[in-house]
Amino acid sequence: METKLKPYPEYKNSGLDWLDNVPTEWEVSRLRYVLHEVDERSADGSETLLSVSQYTGVSPRQTNTDGSVKTRAASLVGYKKAEIGDLVVNIMLAWNGSLGMARQPGIVSPAYGVYRFRADVHPRYAHYLLRTPLYKSRIRASSTGVVESRLRLYTDDLYDLEAVLPPVETQRQIARFLDEYDRRVNRLIRTKQRLIALLNEQKQAIIQRAVTRGLDPDVPLKPSGVDWLGDVPAHWEVVPLKRLARLKSGDSITALQFKENGTYPVYGGNGLRGYTEDYTHEGDYVLIGRQGALCGNVNYAHGKFWASEHAVVATLARGYDLVWFGELVRTMNLNQYSQSAAQPGLSVERIQNIGAPLPPPSEQEAIAAYIREETVDIDVAVERAKEEIDLIREYRTRLIADVVTGKLDVRGVAVPEGEGDGAADDLDVVVDEEPISDEEALAPEEA
After folding, report:
1. What range does the domain containing 282 cover?
2. What are the residues whose beta carbons fall under 8 Å from the beta carbon of 325, sequence distance 6 or more?
3. Contact 312, 248 (CB under 8 A)
4. Considering the domain boundaries, does residue 73 fall inside one?
């Protein structure tokens, strides 16, 4: 795996205006000659329910805390069966890369497409090929619809796409190489994610101590009467959250109303989502995530901005420090008060009555200043680790694209045998011992 990769010895014209030259022995064929649709249905819905993601491909659907599968379907009877090696396509989201090879048997939504490859096409190679940025753009162009968020990739349109195909032994080697490379990259990313988690735990410990006990370690304490809080300084008050700030959900906004660039930022429950030409708020605010797995998440917004319905906007009462309040809310871990297992959400009526500690204004300012000073280096380290993860992912995307389109030759690269082997007769591969979830892949919780 340490071998420096080089181009293939000889190339030929691919015959496609969107694709550069390809290695001489490679072929270009329309997908209608490479795969065919299968439509086998579950009789009782007992099979493993699979989901399709642009981040993780095809994987078992996530479960709730009670072990039940997260789904809004009343019944899974009649869901489409997918076997190991089948290509599963989310017809409505194929344009953003929501497709991939099934690595275990299961069932998928009847609205998905399930396709089986011919014998001389390695499914794992095709998985990598069809998820490259180049093919995402081709799929987007081939999909039908008025707006991007409603594009659909129908079977005939999929069939008309061209696939670049090396000899099957080369496909097998490419799949094995990329599986091993992906496994190593995931380990590296996970190591950096663990570092970020440890740094955030360290930061949160500093913040929690400051906002619940203050800065004087010898201050007399009293019971707060609030389960999550414990003892607080004897001279502090304990008040409902609504006394500190007015909490109100943001305003609805559709995907058509915001863009990648614009005049005013649009904030959802998990931070910046895009930009628009109008705004709902002006000033300094704390935003609390209202929906999704990360509800209770805390962000700050300043100036003119649009707060979407996925965020709860906290308008501070006069005399309270913004940073002190924001970090207090973060410490309260409002996610624990979310309701509905299928789509977790916060009720403003519920959280506004939760008890919170209230120090005098001078202590609020001192606590906020202390938090800024003590956590600035941690924030820098976290951002550096996140940037490194982004660079690693960017390089991985570029390398995969170069390998599956013949820019780089991996045929002579030694790949460890065993688990992860991409051989056609051993498709039940494990790309990572602990697969990175959508959340770890930084999937937006409002997607």
Report:
1. 246-347
2. 244, 245, 286, 314, 316, 364
3. yes
4. yes
Instruction: Report the pLDDT averaged over residues 23-37.
Output: 96
Read off the pLDDT of residues 390-424 as tens digits, 9 standing for 90 and up.
999 999 999 999 999 999 999 989 887 654 444 33
Q: Does 428 lie in the same domain as 294?
A: no
Q: Is the pTM of this model over 0.85?
A: no
Pair 320, 391 in one domain:
no
Angle between helices 361-404 and 168-213 (to 10 degrees): 180
- 21: tokens are 């030259």
> Strand, coil or helix: what is 136?
helix
Same domain assignment for residues 72 and 30:
yes
Give the tokens for residue 91. 């017809």
Q: How far apart are CA 312 and CA 348, in angstroms?
A: 8
Tell me the per-residue pLDDT of 141-197, one tens digit each, with 9 for 90 and over.
999 987 777 899 999 999 999 999 999 999 999 999 999 999 999 999 999 999 999
The answer to whether residues 320 and 392 belong to one domain is no
Q: Which residue has the tokens 């045929």?
A: 411
d(CA 114, CA 84): 11
Same domain, 377 and 334: no
Q: Give the single-character DSSP code of 56.
A: T
pLDDT tens digits along 52-96 = 988 889 999 876 665 666 777 778 999 999 999 999 999 999 999
Can you tell me the distance from the alpha carbon of 443 to that of 447, in angstroms, rounded to the nearest whole number?
8
Q: Is residue 7 part of a domain?
A: yes
Among all chains, which residue has been given the structure tokens 């090929």? 129
Q: Could you tell me if residue 436 is inside a domain?
A: yes
SS3 assignment, position 228:
coil
CATH number at residue 304: 3.90.220.20
Q: How far apart are CA 145 and CA 152, in angstroms?
A: 6
Do 115 and 198 lie in one domain? The reply is: yes
